[in-house]
Amino acid sequence: xxxxxxxxxxxxxxxxxxxxxxxxxxxxxxxxxxxxxxxxxxxxxxxxxxxxxxxxxxxxxxxxxxxxxxxxxxxxxxxxxxxxxxxxxxxxxxxxxxxxxxxxxxxxxxxxxxxxxxxxxxxxxxxxxxxxxxxxxxxxxxxxxxxxxxxxxxxxxxxxxxxxxxxxxxxxxxxxxxxxxxxxxxxxxxxxxxxxxxxxxxxxxxxxxxxxxxxxxxxxxxxxxxxxxxxxxxxxxxxxxxxxxxxxxxxxxxxxxxxxxxxxxxxxxxxxxxxxxxxxxxxxxxxxxxxxxxxxxxxxxxxxxxxxxxxxxxxxxxxxxxxxxxxxxxxxxxxxxxxxxxxxxxxxxxxxxxxxxxxxxxxxxxxxxxxxxxxxxxxxxxxxxxxxxxxxxxxxxxxxxxxxxxxxxxxxxxxxxxxxxxxxxxxxxxxxxxxxxxxxxxxxxxxxxxxxxxxxxxxxxxxxxxxxxxxxxxxxxxxxxxxxxxxxxxxxxxxxxxxxxxxxxxxxxxxxxxxxxxxxxxxxxxxxxxxxxxxxxxxxxxxxxxxxxxxxxxxxxxxxxxxxxxxxxxxxxxxxxxxxxxxxxxxxxxxxxxxxxxxxxxxxxxxxxxxxxxxxxxxxxxxxxxxxxxxxxxxxxxxxxxxxxxxxxxxxxxxxxxxxxxxxxxxxxxxxxxxxxxxxxxxxxxxxxxxxxxx
Length: 695
Prior knowledge:
Low-confidence stretches: 1-9, 240-246
Structural class: alpha/beta
Largest sheet: 10 strands, mixed
Shape: globular
Radius of gyration: 27 Å
Helix content: 25-40%
Number of helices: 19
Number of strands: 27
Distance between the termini: 49 Å
Oligomer: single chain
Strand content: 15-25%
């Protein structure tokens, strides 16, 4: 779907960003469909799609719903954009639950793994469920009967709830027929039932099924005439006016408490919910009928990940992958000694992120290290990295942490980390007012014979050991004096807010990066127009910045050959005649989430390759502190081109090709010289085979 009318020379029919995000989720959903994928992993991909849709509503849907409610007809969000998005999401959800009910659940049952519903339980299982309910569940449930003094309760974002309709009268003789039962988040979502001796079957029961079976116990003397599960998704992007607040941390803490109760955007109910109950809920949440989603199955598939974790069936999961130690490093060798010899590249998760932690660990314990500076965006819970920084302070080192408090959905963890670092005496700063600090960098200053020497780690990813096993990213270790000097200037800028001096190598958003990328594209276009061969290959998560997309389209028209490897949303239509003939766009969806950003330009004999923390999105370029750094070592540059660009351009197993109309089709393997179907190639599988630990 496009947002603009057909093209003129200047007008490009950009693809709609929200529809592009939903198309990405269709490609993820395809992994749940693939019969060669282990069964529990197929279920996990269904959960991932649900999690992605939750975030889509929490972050992207509010302007469209608000436009629909006031019948807005102009602008990027209108009544019709709301209806179009709703229709697309409902198609996606219908496909998702069809795969769940018709493929995944029956296949799990064949393997002896079963979610036992209320009607399927035998007397022994019913007794067990009753005992569980009385012992662990009922004490935490507080049913609320609605009347003038008991208004509709606050229902938290994405929480599990029941609406119940009752006959008869309450203890005071009143006919208040509606009650709400909230299921607390502290309760596990799935329980393993005792198995019959000698049986290999694994039976489970969901918390919703446990509550459902005993709803009547919560209303003694009344009869439950109908009920339904429901779940509401709310707007969750924290809005804080940083110019107005005196203490960002305090303001965010307050905002976090309110996030769970933002504007309601979507209402999910079980498929059997009556119109009476669904209409009542829509009215309470001030939602139109289009916001209602009737689902044939659990209303929160995201929580099925808990079931996956409970199942003991290694054969139904991906074979465990053990990343190898980075090929450029020798275990036990000092990082400082190694970096004197040249830069080091780590390709995660194929090579182990543990090396990054090992470098920090060495710095913390080295008495010659005087200072450590680091940006913190996402680090995960129970972070060893945070403990190492605290230990560095205790050992007398100067520690500066630039903590991004506004990392979406990680705000609370980062506030807690900031406070823990401050409590031991670390210098904690929160970056620049109005900008998120998204750059990933660590700078270590060490006293050596010739004076002070700096060592750095730069990355396309986060300092999170969990996602480092699941996301493809590039870590770059260097002692390059020009590069480390630049990073020191960036840290000084973030702490002092002083004007950035001219940098040697690094490009920084929001100051230089956007313009530098547009200039590089336009320079290639000018040379191509003169007949000089020009090529651009860019790998990133999203392309939604219109000036960059426009520059690429123009360069294509001038003769530049352009390959874009864009995992998620892409607004530039590929190979649209007269607009983007030479632009090819592919999305690779694999076992690991593609996350590395690589920008490659070749004009004639001149090559430039950049690694970056930034996607080509307006917010990354103009509303965040991001960095890009050049890779000048020819060996490392060739390795990045081979592993991150060429391998992905030849992927025929996990790649999808964007069409001029915004649709994606699978990449084809082609045929051999003898006319036979060629073998499929997967970039990720090849890299796993190349770097996986044999131990």
